[in-house]
Design goal:
- The chain is mostly helical and 241 residues long.
- It folds into two domains: 103 residues; 86 residues.
- Helices cover 62% and strands 0% of the residues.
- The chain is globular and about 55 Å long.
- The chain starts with a helix and ends in a 9-residue tail after the last helix.
- It comes from Pisolithus microcarpus 441.
- This is Unplaced genomic scaffold scaffold_40, whole genome shotgun sequence.
Length: 241
């Protein structure tokens, strides 16, 4: 993350909090932010394919987010959070900044008016007290850490994956195993991060357990490509299924 990226994110927050009414000014503000992100995309190279891919995905998401919140919608007027006492556009500028920051940190729309119906699996009713929720997430943390450790061990013991060779270089069966190990590693680390964050937030009384549903959907719902990406694979980053 460099200066261009940080400048783009700061300007995005400021422009969104200003609540520009003119379409011309909204187009200009969106263009400025997108131009900064595009410039950063052109000049940033870490030397690692995985890191470059991750950074490119972050920049791409930033572009889409800018188009959505600066050009297509006026979030301060069109969206509400369940904790809002007054419409967001009536808040002082600094509070609007933090409101926008809270909005973009909630891509699944939990607690927001834009959350799609049935897009997020709610917290199990048995785990809606703080103690039971924390206990359940600690169990998840342990089980998914073991899964992450097993997947990482497999990857480190596979010479093809260590050498950077194609996943197809070991034949079809090994290709499936290699892809499964990579997916399990990604799935497990995201779930672990989510569990730690949930335990800290709920344990510190910053959030209710209902604000931290599981990060991935059920595999049995992945019977179509749309269902997989909308309801299972991207539960952590999307609000529509």
């Amino acid at each position: 993350m460099d200066v261009l990226f940080l400048a783009a994110r700061v300007l995005f927050l400021i422009f969104a909090a200003i609540n520009l009414k003119s379409m011309s000014w909204r187009l200009i503000s969106c263009s400025i932010v997108v131009a900064l992100l595009a410039a950063d995309m052109m000049v940033t190279c870490t030397g690692s394919r995985a890191a470059d891919y991750a950074f490119g995905a972050i920049l791409g998401a930033g572009v889409l987010q800018s188009v959505r919140f600066l050009l297509l919608v006026r979030p301060l007027e069109e969206y509400r959070h369940e904790s809002d006492k007054v419409p967001a556009y009536q808040l002082p500028f600094i509070q609007r900044l933090f409101w926008i920051l809270k909005l973009i940190c909630s891509p699944r729309g939990i607690g927001w008016s834009f959350k799609a119906e049935n897009s997020v699996i709610p917290v199990d009713p048995r785990h809606r007290t703080r103690a039971s929720f924390i206990a359940s997430r600690l169990r998840w943390l342990l089980s998914h850490y073991l899964l992450f450790d097993a997947a990482t061990l497999y990857i480190r013991c596979n010479p093809a994956l260590l050498s950077g060779a194609s996943v197809t270089s070991q034949g079809y069966i090994m290709q499936c195993l290699n892809l499964a190990a990579s997916f399990c590693q990604f799935y497990a680390i995201l779930t672990c991060i989510h569990c730690v964050s949930a335990v800290l937030a709920v344990g510190a009384n910053l959030d209710e357990p209902q604000a931290w549903p599981q990060p991935f959907g059920h595999l049995e719902d992945a019977y179509t490509i749309r269902k997989f990406w909308g309801c299972v694979g991207t539960q952590t980053i999307c609000d529509a299924g």
